[in-house]
Structure formats: C-alpha cells, structure tokens
Design brief:
Length: about 325
C-alpha cells in the first residue's frame, strides 16, 4: 500500500525528488458503525486514524513536516505537546536520524504517549506551565533557527493531514454529508476542510466536538485552553454549515464506552468527541456521516482505570468463574 505522500505528491508542497521520511502512515481503515448508526438514524462510518504507526492522526502531517525539515538541512526538531504530537515527532525524527526535543506541560500528558516519545530517544522536558506557554517557548526556539518547529503551526503538518480527506472522498465515491471530529487545537479541522476544498466537491457539514472545560478535561489530547487554529477552524466549520459542540467529560466518556463496548473500537477519550457531538445536533435521516477516531486507546491507559470496572479475583473453579461472569 502506498503512503499518502506517494499517492498525492502532486497535491503536496514537497521538494521534487526529495525522499519522504515515512513509517507507512495513511491508508487507515474506514469501517461502518452499525449500532451507532441505528441509534442516530444515519449511516455512520469510523475513520480509524488510530491505526497510524504511532497510534494517532498526527503521523499524516509529521511525515511531511519532518521530510521538509530534513530537506532544509534541519539539525533538530522541536514541539510542544499534550502527547500525540510528541510521540509522532519523536518517531519521525528518529526515522530521519535527527534529534527531537519535546516540551510537555507539567502533569498534562497521558503516560502512553510520554513513553512513546522517550522510547525512541527524544529529549523530553516537562515545562512548569500550560500547553500554550510550552508552545510559545517552542515557537521562539524555532524562530531562532536552532530547531524546526513541527507543531501544527508548521504549514507542512496541515498539508499532510489534508490527505485524510482525499482518502475519504476516494473510499466513499465523494465527501460524506457530515464529518464529525474532536476539536483541540483546530489544526485537524482546518486540514480536513482544506482537503475537501481541494477535492473540489461539496464540503461536508463539519461537527467539531470540544471539551466544555478545555483546560481541565480528562481528555488529555484536547486539553488545550487556547486553540492555535481557532480562527481558521471555526471559519471552516461555519462555512460548512456545521457547529462546535461543547461536551462534558461525562458525555465524552459515554461515547468512549459506546465505541468500545458496542463497536469494538478502543480509542482514547478525546477521540470519542465526534461521536459524542452527533447526539447534540440535528442530522438528516439516512445521511452519510464519518467520525474521525484520532488516537488509539493505549495512548491513555489511565482512562481505562478511571472509567471501567476493575477485574474481579476468582478461584480457579469453573462454578466460581461462571458465577462471577454473571
């Protein structure tokens, strides 16, 4: 299977002939969600971006950003991250053979994501402050020229992430009627809108699910108080006839459980924001809806501890096991 950078190179701003730094990203599964479809009265499909190499949608943009950084002679990359960007930047920098510096907000990163970045050799620094403060520091270092910033303010990130819209349009024979996805920094919303705009057919109605309490939500991947792409993302949402839906943590967890228990899809809590948001908007019966599942459940194992029943201890006796199993 070819990667998005190979299939859509003519739609990407990559230097001609320069090799792409790749881990086999893209071409992620698009699967039906029959039980969620039945509940909502629409045709729901799930785009499993959680199946990317580091377990999140970030890999689509990182392959392009790191490839261009290498072409430009970068000696190191840097990012601020609540987790998924860190894991992706670290992996693609390792693949490129250059160092990665990761700035994480103090106490705000899920363990699974932090372990990924550390495992592949990134220099991980915990910033005494918020994500926005960490990003400001990373941007300043990027401007000094010592590091290439690979957060989504790097335009190559958005260019890479737009390829998911191309894949959807190809798989469905055209854009869906509705696209539902999580809204953290807004970069992915902006990227999908750009991709569908370049595809040249009708723009889907974009439904973006954000945490009502952005700064404190349990959904760590969208724990971003000030979305850096707010203006562009919300302009695209408005132009599409869509809306931003603010969700409580209880709503996010309910959708997370439904995805896992009724559709067999284990994702991190933030990834359920699109599904949760659908329950709060009017949908045309029978319309075709795609929910983007942005990150794998193993990214945030602590969420399982918080939100599920702990295992019961039983004796190795068939009757005791049958009774406990209920």
């Amino acid at each position: 299977m070819t990667t998005p950078a190979e299939r859509y190179r003519d739609r990407l701003p990559l230097d001609s002939g320069w090799p792409v730094v790749s881990l086999g990203e893209g071409s992620t599964p698009l699967i039906p969600a029959p039980r969620i479809s039945a509940r909502l009265g629409v045709d729901v499909h799930l785009k499993l971006e959680s199946a990317n190499p580091t377990g999140s949608f970030k890999d689509r943009g990182m392959t392009i950003a790191v490839s261009q950084a290498l072409a430009d002679g970068a000696r190191a990359v840097i990012c601020a991250s609540t987790g998924n960007t860190a894991a992706s930047a670290a992996a693609y920098a390792a693949r490129a053979g250059i160092p990665a510096v990761i700035l994480q907000p103090e106490g705000a990163v899920a363990l699974g994501k932090l372990m990924q970045a550390r495992a592949v050799g990134a220099r991980v620094l915990e910033v005494r402050g918020t994500f926005d403060q960490a990003l400001a520091a990373a941007r300043e270092l990027g401007e000094r020229g010592t590091h290439v910033l690979v957060n989504s303010v790097n335009p190559y990130r958005i260019q890479g992430q737009k390829t998911a819209a191309f894949e959807l349009a190809e798989a469905l024979g055209g854009p869906p009627d509705v696209l539902a996805l999580p809204y953290g920094g807004g970069g992915n919303t902006r990227a999908y809108a750009l991709g569908f705009e370049e595809w040249g057919e009708a723009m889907p109605r974009i439904i973006a699910g954000e945490a009502a309490e952005r700064a404190t939500t349990l959904a760590s991947a969208i724990r971003i108080a000030e979305p850096v792409h707010r203006a562009e993302a919300e302009a695209a949402i408005t132009a599409s006839g869509g809306s931003v839906v603010s969700l409580t943590d209880d709503e996010l967890l309910a959708a997370w459980r439904e995805l896992a228990e009724r559709e067999g899809v284990f994702c991190e809590p933030s990834s359920a924001a699109g599904v949760a948001a659908l329950a709060r908007v009017e949908l045309e019966p029978g319309s075709r809806v795609v929910c983007v599942i942005t990150g794998h459940g193993l990214k945030d194992p602590a969420a399982v501890e918080r939100a599920t029943v702990a295992p019961l201890q039983v004796d190795p006796d068939p009757d005791a096991i049958a009774a406990a199993a209920g």
